[in-house]
């Protein structure tokens, strides 16, 4: 079993879910085209704040407007992803086997993802 430490519960139940993270950690981009393991659906997240900009979930346009009205610059998640690629380049994909080593369950007990063994 793999757990998110309550992240998915908090994000799903919050009126406003904000993730704060650096755009790049070391040489690894925080934003990727496809996540390796999903523990919290992106639809549960309203705002991503990074050191390179603020992105708002397109499902929450009123939040984006309120941030702009407050004088903050809002960018798209796609812009942040491109910015990360400029800084780091495209990461090499990780090779996995078909062997499932863990199951990720969502807050309701449903399977949200599985973790595969990394290939040698």
From TrEMBL:
Gene3D superfamilies on file: Glutaconate Coenzyme A-transferase (3.40.1080.10)
Keywords: Lyase
Enzyme class (EC, first level): lyase
Top-level taxon in the UniProt lineage: Bacteria
EC code(s) of this entry: 4.1.3.6
Lineage, top ranks: Bacteria, Pseudomonadati, Pseudomonadota, Gammaproteobacteria, Enterobacterales
Protein name as catalogued: Citrate lyase alpha chain
Entry GO terms, CC: ATP-independent citrate lyase complex; cytoplasm
An example Gene Ontology biological process: acetyl-CoA metabolic process
The keyword Lyase belongs to this UniProt entry's keyword annotation: yes
Transport in keyword set: no
Organism whose genome encodes this protein: Serratia fonticola
């Amino acid at each position: 079993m793999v757990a998110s430490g309550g992240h998915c519960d908090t994000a799903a139940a919050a009126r406003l879910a904000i993730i704060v993270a650096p755009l790049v950690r070391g040489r690894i981009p925080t934003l990727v085209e496809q996540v390796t393991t999903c523990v919290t659906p992106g639809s549960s997240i309203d705002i991503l704040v990074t050191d390179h900009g603020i992105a708002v979930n397109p499902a929450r346009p009123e939040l984006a407007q309120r941030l702009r009205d407050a004088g903050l610059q809002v960018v798209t998640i796609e812009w942040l992803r491109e910015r990360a690629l400029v800084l780091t380049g495209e990461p090499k994909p990780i090779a996995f086997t078909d062997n499932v080593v863990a199951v990720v369950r969502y807050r309701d007990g449903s399977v949200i993802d599985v973790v595969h063994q990394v290939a040698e």
